[in-house]
Amino acid sequence: MLARRGIGIVHALAAVAAVGLVIGAKPSENAPPPSAGKVHMPCTLRSTALLPIADPRGMGYTNNRKFVVDAQGVGWVAVRSKDRRGFNICLVRIPGPWRAGMPVEQNWLEDRDGVEVTTAPQRVASIAAGADSSIQMVWYGGTAASPDHQVRYARFNTSGAARLAEERAPFTVPGYAAVVANRPSANDLWQEHASLAIGPDGTAHVAWEARDPSRLAKDGTPKPGIAYATRTRDGRWSVNGVLGRPPYLEVDERCPSQSRPTILVDRSGVVHVLCYGSMSGVQQVLHGRIEGKKFSGWQMISPSNGDQRHVSAALDPAGGLHVAWREGVPAHGSSSAEEVAVFYASLDRDGHWRKAVRVSPVGEDASTPSVAAGDSSVSVAWVAWAPGARNSEGQVDNGFPADNATVEGRLEVATRWNDAARFEAAIVVDAGAASYPCWAVSARDEGVRPPLAWTSREPGGDVKLHLGWCEMPAR
């Protein structure tokens, strides 16, 4: 690993309550030449704190979408926090009109249908809007009697007040006890980081970071690989019950371990799965397609010597795939120092990846990006900090390259118009300590960019869930 610099940077701060997002310019190679005379209407970002939460990582992680806006304009956010019995998942309903101080509704997971959620901490969720107007959710967690994490599923009816209609563990992967017996220091990592997308036919597609006793490293630690399952609109799962082995997409010597998948489905039903995995000992962002129930295999989207992790992906209305991730790169003007930067690339219609471009500014470190793609622009949000800074847990540079948990700093956003050749200069939305931004997946035309949710630690130490949305000027 290259040595890190311990210098600070100076950054202009913008007001949080009302931020103009259309300023400056930043080089990019991922867009057609600009159209002469094209004028883009700026928007103002309004934001408000919605409610206090107990976990600064409650909106983690970058791979799993946690924010949906339905066709009626109601926002839904899945956040990890504490209810009266411990860490659980709350589905927050945000009715309109959105404004500072507006009330929200909280809907917690419950013990039911053989699924316990109150006897052990539950981990972060991923949500998607169903064809029946439901909100569907996957997450992972264990119980007091069985601490190994398993994938879990829930469905909320949303007509009127939200109501938990279904909750279950559709399948389990055994073998955790044997692994722990041979390696007592093993933690409860087992089935992790579930991500959810719903296709045009109502099928729910789930990808997760799976482990089993047959794939162990030399020290006895289970090696993660990406597994995949589906649920039909009428509730039938492609796998169910006790599984002899997770339904891995592709695990082999070329790519022996993969982590933190994200999954999307385009309008034609093609499934895109992205993750990061070890390629020749270096973590790289990987992409694969599922078409006609056949997996294409993993492909590196931007091969690099730098450590790549924390991938976020979005589909534009035309089906174009847009991806952002964080990567370790040599610092500007140095051969021995390293920066942590956010990169972006898109997939051409002929199946080729365009050259990746750096989105975060030179001279700052950045991680945990989220990308959104509309019919007129692409926006990337991320968390940034001065090189060498310590987070609230005392970690330098948020623990890079293991920046896998607490990642705090300024929340920044950059936008590129589809007819422009450059990302505009990044602006600060929240001076920090902000964490884990997530753009909404919206059923409505949001204009310039969709709403954004994130968490932020207040000066007094309290952590709150924040919402930001774009207001267009009156015409």
Sheet having the most strands: 8 strands, antiparallel
Number of strands: 34
Classification by helices and strands: mainly beta
Tally of distinct domains = 1
CATH topology: Neuraminidase
Number of helices: 1
Radius of gyration: 21 Å
Unreliable spans are 1-37
How would you write the strand order of the largest sheet?
2-4-34-33-31-29-28-27
Cα shape = globular
The CATH class, by name, is Mainly Beta
Q: Please tell me the CATH architecture by its name.
A: 6 Propeller
Average pLDDT taken over every residue: 88
- Bin the strand percentage: 35-45%
Overall description:
With 475 residues, the protein is mostly beta strands. It has one domain (3-471): Neuraminidase (6 Propeller). The protein is 1% helix and 45% strand. The protein has one helix and 34 strands. An eight-stranded antiparallel β-sheet has the order 2-4-34-33-31-29-28-27, with no helix packed on it. Strand 20 and strand 21 form a beta hairpin. Mean pLDDT is 88; it is low at 1-37.
How are the SSEs ordered, and which strands pair?
Layout: E1 3-4, E2 18-20, E3 26-27, E4 44-53, E5 67-69, E6 75-83, E7 86-94, E8 105-108, E9 126-129, E10 135-141, E11 150-157, E12 163-168, E13 171-172, H1 176-182, E14 192-198, E15 204-210, E16 225-231, E17 241-242, E18 258-265, E19 271-279, E20 282-291, E21 294-295, E22 299-300, E23 308-315, E24 321-330, E25 337-347, E26 357-358, E27 365-373, E28 377-385, E29 409-417, E30 422-423, E31 427-439, E32 441-442, E33 452-457, E34 463-471
Parallel strand pairs: 1-25, 5-32, 13-17
Antiparallel strand pairs: 2-4, 3-30, 4-34, 5-6, 6-7, 7-8, 9-10, 10-11, 11-12, 14-15, 15-16, 18-19, 19-20, 20-21, 20-22, 23-24, 24-25, 25-26, 27-28, 28-29, 29-31, 31-33, 33-34
